[in-house]
Amino acid sequence: MAKSKKRYILYGFMAIIIIAISYWGINYLKGIGLFSDRNVYYIKYDRIDGLDVSSAVTVNGYKIGQVTEVNLNDDLKSLTVKIDVSSDYNIPDSSVAEIYSMDLMGTKGIQLVLSDKETFHKQGDFLIGSIEASLKDQVSMQMLPIKNQAEDLMKELQNVIEIISYIFNDETRDNLDKSFASIKTTLANLESASFELDTLLISERQRLANIILNIDNITTTLSGSSEQMTNILSNLSDFSDTLAAVDLAQTIKSANDVLANLNSITTKINSGEGTLGNLLYNDTLYQNLERTSRSLDKLLTDIRLNPRKYINFSVISFGRSISVTNEDDLSPRDKKYLERQRKKNEKKFERQTENDAQSHLKDDFINDSFYFIEIKHSGTKINAEVFKNKKEVFEYFDSSGYHYFTALHYDNKNSMALLSLYQPEYPDSRIAAFIDGELKYN
Known about the structure:
single chain, Elongation Factor Tu (Ef-tu), domain 3, seven-stranded mixed barrel, five-stranded antiparallel sheet, 10 helices
C-alpha cells in the first residue's frame, strides 16, 4: 500500500515537471523567457492589419520583445495590444509603436520609433500607436498625381477633339467651299475690271489729252489776269483800312466796361450785399415773419384753451351781477359761488375743446418740426390729476395709444438737457419730435 502511494506521488511530480517544461517550451518558442525580467506596455490601435500574438517588437530591426495579447475594446471600434519588452531597454516618452510589414509576405510586427526625450515610460503605460502605409497605399500615393494629370490631359484632348469636330462639321466645310469659290470669283472680277480699265484708257486717250489741254488754258488765262487780281486785292486792303479807321477798340472797351459793371452788380447780389442781395439771400425777414406767425398762433391757441388768463368773467348770482377783477375783493359766499360756477364751466369747456385741441395740436405739427419730452405713454387715457404739478401737458392720441408731452421746444440741441430734468420723476420719459406731421423718437 505504501509503495502504491509513493508511485502515485512520483507520477504527480512527473506530471508537474512535464507541464512546467511544456509551459517553458511554449513560452520559449514564443520568445518569452521565464527567468528574465520584462516590462509590459499597452498600445491602442483603430486596426492592426494582421498583427497577432507573438509578433515581434523591434528597434531598428533588432527584436527586444513581442506581442502577448490583442483584445477588442468594448466600443468595438478600437483594439488594445499588450507587448512585453525586455527590462534591459527603457522606452523614452513620446516614442511611437508603429505596425509595419517585416517582409514581402506581409508578416506584421511592431517597430519602436524612439524619441529624443530623456524621460522614460513606466511599466503599464500606453504608447503612441501608428500604422505604416502599405505598399498599395504608397503606390497609390505615387500614382495619384500621375492619374490626375492623365485625367486632365484626357479632358483637354476631349475638348480639342470637340472643338475640331465643331469647326469642321458639314456646314463649316460647305462654308469653306463657298468661301474659296467666292475668292476665285473675286479674283476673276478683278482681272476683268483691270482689263476694262486698260481698254477705257486706250479708247479715251484723246479725251484725256483734251482735258489736260483745257486745264493748261485756264492757268494761262489766270496768268494773263494778274493785273485784275491785283486790283481786287487792293480794294480789299482799302476796305480793311476803313474798318481800322473806325474806333472799334473804344467801342469794344465801352461794351466791356458795361458788362464788367453788370457782372459786379450780379456778384454783389449773389453774395448777399446791398438791399436787393439781402432780400434775395438773407432769410432773416422770412425767419422773423415765421417766428411772428408761430408766436401769434401760440397766443391764439393759448387764448382759446385758457381764456381765463386774458378775460375777466362776470358771474350772475341771485339777480345781481358780480364783476370779477380781483377775487380777494369778493365775499366768502360769492367766492364759493364763483368757484362752483368755474368748475362747471371748466368741465364744459374741457369737453368742448378736447377734440379741437387734439386736432389743433396735430395741425400745428404738419408743416413744422417740434420737439417734446414724452413723460407718459399709455394704452388708456390717464387722469389729469397725475400731472397736477406740471404747468403744461399735451395729450396726443394715435394708433399706439395716448401720449403725454411737455417741454415744447424748437431746437433739438436743448432736448437732452430738458430730458435730464424730467427723468428723475418720470424714468420712462424720452425725446419725441413731430417732423412734417409724423411722430418720431430719438
